[in-house]
TrEMBL record:
Protein name: Putative transposase
Recorded superkingdom: Bacteria
């Protein structure tokens, strides 16, 4: 569902349509984070190595997803500029910089 929303954002024409689709994607993402939180609270660490691994992965990715949501809301919904160093480019590579032509680029 989220992948489809991201695709429609990429190919939508006009700011109003894009903002509407971003709102939908942000809603879905928040719902998924809430679901993850509820599941993490219900899944005890005593579930064995698989449960511990899952808990560790959730603990790693939840803050990263939150780090993506905040600048997206500021940039898309509120029309504010977001500095490149505040953006998270990839969930899977923490060292991937945003290339810019200016030292203090705002994207």
């Amino acid at each position: 569902m989220a992948k489809k929303r991201a695709w429609t954002i990429q190919y939508s024409r006009g700011r109003p349509k894009r903002i509407k689709r971003y709102r939908e994607l942000l809603r879905i993402t928040r719902h998924t984070l809430d679901y993850l939180k509820q599941t993490a609270e219900k899944l005890p660490l005593a579930a064995g190595p698989a449960g511990e691994l899952w808990q560790a992965m959730v603990g790693h990715y939840r803050p990263l997803v939150a780090q993506i949501i905040a600048p997206t809301e500021r940039r898309v919904l509120h029309g504010k500029a977001v500095h490149a160093n505040e953006k998270l480019v990839s969930l899977f590579s923490s060292r991937m910089p945003i290339s810019s032509s200016r030292p203090s680029a705002v994207c």
